[in-house]
Amino acid sequence: MNRLFGFLILLVICVAAIGFYRGWFTVSSGSPDAASHNVDINLSVDTDKVKADAETVQEKAVELTGQAKDGANELADQARESK
């Protein structure tokens, strides 16, 4: 159970780090309220950027799997010819 929990924590940290690096998440703060000593901190998610990156990854994955499939077919053809 500890391994699963540790893995999930690591996964969340990785997604957060990649998200901040890619610009999916931004943190901002408003001007502090001097009377109440409160500071508002906002976390924003750019869903358009997340969707664009997901589509790019999907297109690249389709391209790479197509190349792998073509390569496997070529190897299979060569193996059939050598028999």
What this model shows, in words?
- The chain is α+β, with helices and mostly antiparallel strands and 83 residues long.
- It contains two helices and two strands, in the order H-E-E-H.
- The chain has a two-stranded antiparallel ribbon with strand order 1-2.
- It is elongated.
- The model has no long low-confidence stretch (mean pLDDT 87).
Blueprint of the fold:
Elements: H1 2-22, E1 25-29, E2 41-45, H2 47-82
Antiparallel strand pairs: 1-2
Spatial shape: elongated
How far apart the termini lie comes to: 51 Å
Class from helix and strand fractions: alpha+beta
Helix content: 55-70%
Could you tell me the radius of gyration in angstroms? Answer: 23 Å
Low-confidence stretches: none
How are the strands of the biggest sheet laid out side by side?
1-2
Proportion of strand residues: 5-15%
* Oligomeric state: single chain
Main sheet makeup: 2 strands, antiparallel
Task: Give the structure's gist in a few sentences.
The chain is α+β, with helices and mostly antiparallel strands and 83 residues long.
Which features would summarize this protein structure in a list?
2 helices; two-stranded antiparallel ribbon; alpha+beta; elongated
